[in-house]
Amino acid sequence: MDLVPALQEPLKKVLGPATAKVMAEHLGLHTVGDLLHHYPRRYEERGQLTHLADLPMDEHVTVVAQVADARLHTFASAKAPRGKGQRLEVTITDGSGRLQLVFFGNGVHKPHKELLPGTRAMFAGKVSVFNRRLQLAHPAYELLRGDSEETVETWAGALIPIYPATAKLESWKIGKAVQTVLPSAQEALDPLPDTLRAGRGLLPLPEALLRIHRPHTKADIADARARLKWDEAFVLQVALARRRHAETQLPAVPRVPRPDGILAAFDDRLPFTLTEGQRKVSEEIFADLATAHPMHRLLQGEVGSGKTMVALRAMLAVVDAGGQAAMLAPTEVLAQQHHRSVTEMMGELAEGGMLGGAEHATKVVLLTGSMGTAARRQALLDLATGEAGIVIGTHALIEDKVQFHDLGLVVVDEQHRFGVEQRDALRGKGKQPPHLLVMTATPIPRTVAMTVFGDLETSVLDQLPAGRSPIASHVVPAADKPHFLARAWERVREEVESGHQAYVVCPRIGDEEDDPKKSGQKKAPEDEAEKRPPLAVLDVADQLGRGPLKGLKVEVLHGRMHPDDKDAVMRRFAAGETDVLVATTVIEVGVNVPNATAMVIMDADRFGVSQLHQLRGRVGRGSAPGLCLLVTEMPEASAARQRLNAVASTLDGFELSRIDLEQRREGDVLGQAQSGARSSLRVLAVIEDEEVIAEARQEAAAVVAADPELTGLPALRTALDALVDEEREQYLEKG
Predict the structure, then answer these.
(1) N or C: at which end does the chain have fewer Cβ atoms within 10 angstroms?
(2) Who contacts 455 (Cβ-Cβ below 8 Å, separation ≥6)?
(3) What is the pLDDT of residues 103-128, one digit of tens each?
């Protein structure tokens, strides 16, 4: 029997089933190798304290601090009606700030004995806000006794690694587990070619792993990180380079538009001129479409920069050349909206085979999961016969039943909602691989584009079409200044009175089963310390209709409504019959109602920076100026408020996507961008490590050009297989 290589040994054999189970469920770590690649997030120096002043909200943190004082309080509650409830409040300090810890009920006895003033310890927990002060409720802690042998052993060396942890497994427990598996690091296979490693003066992989987990000096950490960054950047870029190489080997039908075809007819009837950017990007696309290899292009454009127009002209070029084009949208609402706007823009050119259709007309069909059987059957028939030149739809397009006569171009809208496999499935529908155009309104910094979409060429639309209006954005601090919120509703009324419409966006729908109101349980005082649930569409719509917006026509829109109802609500709003639409983020992408000028985002701190920017792009789409109000109850000094201030201060999506990346862990951003596939980045920081990524891309391209199958680099192949497996696994989990 073959021995399992040391790094593939399952953790449950090495650490025992209980710890292994928590590591697998909460941190996604299954083998010794996984754990060795779970790097410390930062390091504490003995005697140097974390800044309590900079604690992030809502994150699991580990701090080293000293107990300043501890007080035991008693109170009456539902569980202990006669004043027998106990609460221990401990204040800790690190010189930069103070933080309150709270323990309740039976959990007070041990900390009450151990956390005496003057005691130093490591504390781990989730930062929350209670009575407008930061606190950790029921933190786990480990006392740091300078003299006891065990502690000195456990925290050998002057630098204490602090690992990304979860509520179920604190940093120091992860540290002890790493200590157990560290000897296996010697057997790590090195994916970097020797010449590359030597040429760049990088550490061997086993050495880098030892130094990142057990550094003696700060230089050890820097050397280890430099090496591990190269691993991540290089393996990822080799994967992308191989994908690009494979795609240049594929054949495709060149699609060249006829000079007097449907594209020319469409351009003639346009009531406006294209922007310089739209013309330039269209030329890049037409050049790609004319080649005998499939186009793979990413079209980035700010909200409202006219991407749909560029995509439609590309689709018409393919129809001219005798092919069909498919546009894939992430939601039914968006697919219906695209179908509406494309047929409106094309007019009689979209009436192929019908009386009154123009000479070069084609048919534009819609295909979604919720269509009636008859309409669906007709749509499938039109695609199979080639009668329909353009189809717009959701994931329903990927199903086996869907057959094309001659699929020439696939346009994917809002790429970050689709994985690579879904793109490939749609591609498989062509007799030969179709050309691919991917669009996104989420501005992506250059390095992320190189990392996430490294298999695509990139075009950027950065001008807004003429006639777009500026959007003023303001933060409304509802807790500090309640009268600001009252004024926000007055502003909405003013917009409606002057003939416009407004959106109100909430993070939650509000018909969830686990609603605390429905379960009828009273909350214990310790739960009161938890944050209230996010505001919900149904509740807010109800309160507004009876209160500040009484008399206005208020409707709701959310993802769990029946598709026909959603479409009816959108149609009424687009037609101006509804004054205020209270919605979830279903309106985030592509909803286009030029008469809507105001947007109020409730609990704005619950959304990401890029998402807020996307939402805001729904107003100011006509000639009247737009207004976006970001409502939050977060305290002035919190990181959440700084995020909102950043959104309010600029309309530049690229600037905001940079801020977003700097504030969140890269994995989240990349994960979002590629349905989880790229969250394997651990030490590579996409913004800061631009040079490493660019150099790794060059090195990878050279390696793949010389040896596409990597026959001479078995360790690199193994690392690649692991990366691709991880992608596939994550894709299947999402599936």
Answers:
(1) N
(2) 240, 243, 244, 247, 296
(3) 988 888 889 999 999 898 888 778 88
Say which DSSP state 672 is in.
H
- Contact criterion met (CB below 8 Å) for 699 and 716: no
Q: Please state, in angstroms and rounded to a whole number, the distance separating the CA atoms of residues 488 and 503.
A: 12
Q: Quick one: which of 209, 141, 215 has its CA closest to 181?
A: 209
DSSP per-residue letters across 25-46: HHH---BHHHHHTS--SEEEET
C-alpha 49/C-alpha 189 separation (Å) is 37
* Residue 109 three-state SS: helix
Q: Please state, in angstroms and rounded to a whole number, the distance separating the CA atoms of residues 517 and 62.
A: 34
Note if the pTM is more than 0.85.
no
Rounded Cα–Cα distance for residues 126 and 102 (Å): 12
For 698-727, the pLDDT digits (tens) are: 899 899 999 888 888 888 888 888 776 665
From the CB of residue 507, how many other CB atoms can be counted at a distance below 10 Å?
18
Per-residue pLDDT reduced to its tens digit, 324-354: 999 998 888 888 888 988 998 899 898 876 6
What length is written for the chain? 735
Query: Which pLDDT does position 486 carry in this prediction?
Result: 92
- Cβ contact 597:614 at 8 Å: no
Tokens (6 digits) for 421 = 């496999």
**Which amino acid makes up residue 634?**
M
**The residue to which tokens 């590629």 are assigned:** 674
Closest CA to 503 of 334, 616, 632, 335: 616
pLDDT at 279 > cutoff 90: yes
Q: How far apart are CA 252 and CA 270, in angstroms?
A: 30
Beta-strand pair 120-130/60-75 = antiparallel
Residue 463 one-letter amino acid: Q
d(CA 366, CA 566): 16
Instruction: Please tell me the distance from the alpha carbon of residue 600 to that of residue 122, in angstroms, as a whole number.
Output: 42
CB count in 10 Å sphere of residue 134:
20
Is pLDDT at 733 greater than 60 in this prediction? no
Amino acid at 613: H
Output the CA–CA distances (angstroms, integers) from residue 86 to 69, 80, 123, 524, in the order listed. Answer: 17, 9, 21, 12
542 CB-contact burial (10 Å; exposed 0-12 / middle 13-18 / buried 19+) = middle
> Are the beta carbons of 345 and 312 closer than 8 angstroms?
yes
Do residues 581 and 557 touch, judged by C-beta distance below 8 A? yes
Distance (Å) of CA 119 to CA 110, 115, 266, 585, 638: 14, 6, 76, 47, 28
- Residues near 248 by Cβ (< 8 Å), separated by ≥ 6? 293
> Do residues 483 and 631 touch, judged by C-beta distance below 8 A?
no
Reported in sequence order, the residue ranges of 21-97 that DSSP labels E, i.e. its strands, are 42-45, 60-75, 85-93
List 88's β-bridge partners, or say none.
72, 103
Rg (CA), the chain: 29
CA dihedral 544, 548, 550, 556 (to 10 degrees): -20
pLDDT at 497 over 90: yes
Given a cut of 80, whether residue 386 has pLDDT beyond it is yes
Closest by CA to 529, choosing from 79, 165, 133, 168, is 133
CB contact at 8 A, 44 and 160: yes
Backbone angles phi, psi at 359, to 5 degrees: -60, -45
For residues 114 and 143, what is the distance between their CA atoms, to the nearest angstrom?
8
Strand, helix or coil for residue 399: coil
Q: End-to-end distance of the chain based on CA atoms, in angstroms?
A: 35
pLDDT for 479 beyond 80: yes
Alpha carbons 260 and 231: distance in angstroms, whole number:
53
The span from the CA of 57 to the CA of 59, in Å, is: 6
Structure tokens at 70: 């501890």
* Closest listed residue to residue 351, CA positions, set 397, 386, 387: 387
| CA 706 to chain CA centroid, nearest Å | 35
3-state helix, strand, coil in the chain (%, to 5): 45, 20, 35
Of 53, 170, 62, the C-alpha closest to 123 is 62
